[in-house]
Specification:
The complex is a heterotrimer of chains A (148), B (152) and C (412). Chain A has 148 residues and is of the alpha/beta class. In chain A, 49% of the residues lie in helices and 13% in strands. Chain A has a four-stranded parallel beta sheet, sandwiched between helices. The radius of gyration of chain A is 16 Å and the shape is globular. By secondary structure, chain B is an alpha+beta fold. Chain B has a single domain, classed as Alpha-Beta Plaits (2-Layer Sandwich), CATH 3.30.70. Chain B is built from five helices and five strands. In chain B, strands 3-4-2-5 form a four-stranded antiparallel beta sheet, with helices on one face. The longest helix of chain B is centred in the last third of the chain and has 25 residues. With 412 residues, chain C is an alpha/beta fold. Among the domains of chain C are: 132 residues, Rossmann fold (3-Layer(aba) Sandwich), CATH 3.40.50; 102 residues, ATPase, nucleotide binding domain (Nucleotidyltransferase, domain 5), CATH 3.30.420.40. Chain C is built from 16 helices and 13 strands. In chain C, helix 13 packs antiparallel against helix 14. The chains are: A alpha/beta (148), B alpha+beta (152), C alpha/beta (412).
Chain lengths: 148, 152, 412
């Protein structure tokens, strides 16, 4: 099982594909779950406290907005742990955890910097593209299994 | 600031969504209840939310997928089912993530179609999709338009 | 139990900056309730295109769609709170445009705020209170004349002021620097009562505002305890005789500054700045002290000088004062230094607060600092308009409180 970072990290489709073809998806839900299941100071709704933007300083400097740094405290460790990545490039309507374009640019950059197997795609826009999309992901994920 | 004591520690939550004309979320739910063995299953308009120990949830998910593998999709969720912090009733509106999910739900029919085709066909025989990082070559019709525009 | 005031939140980032609960908390403390307008994906796509501001961040697209849903009445709200990350340019543009759009197309009061991870509910409290006040007390804020015998008290961070009013006239005033909040309040009240020639028992209604409003209000059993944003706007248009139509109120206070865009005496959009003391009355006080003059003499002194002759490169109260000291040491005149200090404060308020509201004439300056002519002059130069400073402008909060408190007089 390979840890596959998915972008958008909130994606149902990628999360499903990665698990379906035998690997572990690294998604926003995992990072949020970790926070809401850990005791600490109360900070609803996501249990992201003002400490998180400070932890985010590891990936973005202090003049970068707090929301970017807070999000990076979720994604930074996950990108570091990733052994492969699937990126959908035209994910313009992923809100919430993926709601900040500046964070998203940084996430993509950090993933690109990493020497791991990557697959880059666009969302399919019709059935034919759907077949190519699923086939590409299946090939990629099956290949990962063989490599490990 | 007050202290925070988490609930559902050590559990996982997963969404099981169904994109099908043949199976309804209710069908999925009734099968889910049959095999739940006490694991929490909550029915929603698009499928189920299941919470419990990881092995238990995975077992149920695997069983449910069998009903219609090409039309059932699964995703992790950070919050346990019905958590007030994410509940539409408490927030006045859907949490932002919901609109993202709404978007991907509109793509699911293409994914289901892809899965169905690949049940019968080797994925290696399918040509790769367009590389999103490569800029497409100039379309011949667009080139003609540009030439015409220059000449006039 | 009254229904909470429904405050629609349009935002990007607070949940991820760890401050969403601070926003919720501030709203709850003043009887408000934060909610997120519900929109569907098709609404987001359509309304984002319709609005025409092509931003990249999905959560800003969502904020735009939510704003349109509010303006078009598809989602009901009493007030709007717009919050985005401090230092995000994309979000700042959206924040400004949404604030303007909502203000122009609806009657919903709007406050916008750019937060950091250090933002607390305390910082947001006065703003939230103003939102709930406007939503809840529109009838009270519509009052245009003072009646009966009322007392207004403004317990500010730097000074405490009181006025006694009778039948639409100010008949007594009291003013002193704030030391102990209650002691200062009691002393200015005693002074105002003595000047008016009335006793406390004769007063028919009392209103308090300013930082110490809750403490003093409780102590003196006030009928009205209200934040200074709505009270000062009301006081400003009342004293300036501009109760109808638009107006802009600027109040440079001891600790923070307020810029309020008013329509018919009711704030529509407002901002409060309080991060840097270099943009406050406190800086002018320090300047006066350094120049060896009373604060009352700083205005006339600065009018004789040319601020441009003194280099002022810092907005910080410490470094700003340092610049002034250096200028004096280098031979600058006291007049030029006084003028430079006034210009520096005006410029900072102009750059930081006034960009967040739409300036509509008349521009009314109130509060103690409005008596410093050099500051009013510098602001007029920056805004290219003649600034109105109404009579009793230093008592603005107290006058606004006395005016509004008369709404609480029981009719016999």
């Amino acid at each position: 099982m390979v840890k596959v970072f998915i972008y958008p990290a909130t994606s149902l489709i990628l999360s499903d594909m990665v698990a379906r073809f035998g690997h572990t998806p690294l998604s926003s839900a995992i990072a949020i779950r970790e926070r809401i299941q850990t005791a600490g100071l109360e900070s609803p709704p996501l249990q992201i406290t003002p400490e998180e933007p400070k932890k985010g300083l590891k990936w973005a400097a202090v003049e970068v907005p707090a929301g970017v740094r807070g999000r990076m405290s979720l994604y930074g460790p996950m990108i570091e742990a990733a052994e492969a990545a699937i990126i959908i490039n035209d994910a313009d309507l992923a809100f919430g955890c993926m709601g900040c374009a500046r964070t998203n640019e940084l996430i993509k950059f950090l993933v690109h910097q990493k020497d791991i197997p990557k697959l880059e795609l666009n969302y399919p826009k019709n059935e034919d593209e759907g077949v190519k999309f699923v086939a590409a992901i299946k090939r990629f994920l099956t290949g990962l299994g063989a490599a490990k | 600031m007050t202290g925070y004591t988490p609930t559902h520690v050590g559990s996982v939550t997963k969404y099981v969504m169904v994109e099908s004309f043949e199976i309804t979320p209710a069908d999925l739910a009734s099968r889910g209840y049959e095999i739940s063995k006490g694991v929490m299953i909550k029915e929603t308009c698009f499928g189920l939310v299941i919470n419990g120990k990881e092995e238990e949830v995975d077992r149920i998910v695997a069983e449910l997928r069998k009903i219609d593998p090409d039309h059932i999709f699964v995703k992790d969720r950070g919050f346990p089912p019905g958590d007030a912090r994410r509940c539409r009733a408490n927030l006045g509106g859907a949490r932002p993530g919901y609109n993202g999910l709404e978007f991907e739900m509109s793509i699911l029919p293409y994914i289901s179609h892809g899965l169905e085709v690949l049940d019968k066909k080797d994925e290696k025989s399918v040509p790769p999709p367009e590389d999103p990082l490569e800029h497409p070559l100039l379309d011949i019709h667009k080139l003609k338009k540009l030439i015409d525009a220059q000449e006039s | 139990m009254t229904q909470p005031v429904r405050i629609a939140q349009l935002s990007c980032g607070p949940e991820y900056s760890g401050i969403q609960h601070e926003i919720d908390e501030a709203a709850r403390e003043v009887g408000g309730e934060i909610f997120f307008p519900d929109v569907a994906l098709k609404d987001i796509r359509r309304d984002f295109d319709k609005f025409g501001l092509d931003v990249r961040s999905p959560d800003l697209k969502l904020a735009i769609a939510r704003a349109i849903a509010l303006v078009e009445g598809r989602v009901e709200a009493d007030a709007v709170f717009i919050a985005t990350c401090f230092r995000c340019a994309e979000a700042a543009i959206v924040r400004n445009e949404l604030r303007r759009y909502i203000n122009e197309h609806s009657r919903l009061p709007v406050v916008s705020y750019s937060f950091t991870e250090r933002t607390t509910s305390g910082t947001l409290l006065t703003r939230m209170e103003a939102l709930t006040t406007i939503a809840r007390r529109r009838a009270l804020l519509a009052r245009e004349t003072q009646k009966g015998l009322t007392l207004g008290l403004d317990s500010g961070s730097a000074t405490t002021k009181a006025v006694v009013m009778r039948d639409n006239k100010i008949i007594g005033t009291g003013w002193q620097p704030t030391t102990e909040v209650l002691k200062s309040a009691n002393e200015v009240i005693a002074h105002a009562l003595a000047e008016a020639g009335v006793t406390r028992d004769e007063i028919q209604a009392v209103g308090t505002t300013g930082y110490g409003r809750f403490l003093v209000g409780k102590e003196i059993n006030a009928d009205l305890i209200q934040e200074e944003l709505t009270v000062n706007s009301k006081g400003a248009v009342y004293l300036a005789g501009r109760q109808h139509g638009p107006a802009t109120v600027i109040d440079i206070g001891g600790m923070d500054n307020k810029a309020i865009s008013v329509m018919d005496g009711i704030p529509g959009v407002f901002t409060m700045g309080g991060i840097c003391a270099g943009a406050s009355g406190r800086f002018l006080e320090m300047t006066a002290k350094r120049l060896g003059v009373e604060i009352t003499e700083l205005g006339p002194l600065s009018m004789k000088g040319m601020g441009g002759r003194v280099p002022m490169n810092s907005y910080c109260i410490v470094f700003g004062t340092q610049s002034l000291v250096n200028a004096l040491a280098a031979g600058s005149t006291r007049e030029d230094v006084a003028a430079a200090a006034c210009h520096s404060v005006a410029e900072q308020v102009y750059e930081q607060q006034l960009q967040e509201v739409d300036i509509k004439e008349p521009v009314i300056m109130v509060g103690g600092t409005s008596l410093i002519e050099g500051l009013v002059f510098a602001m007029g130069e920056l805004l290219q308009t003649k600034i109105v400073v109404p009579p009793y402008s230093q008592y603005i909060g107290a006058v606004g409180s006395a005016l509004l408190a008369s709404g609480f007089i029981k009719d016999d």
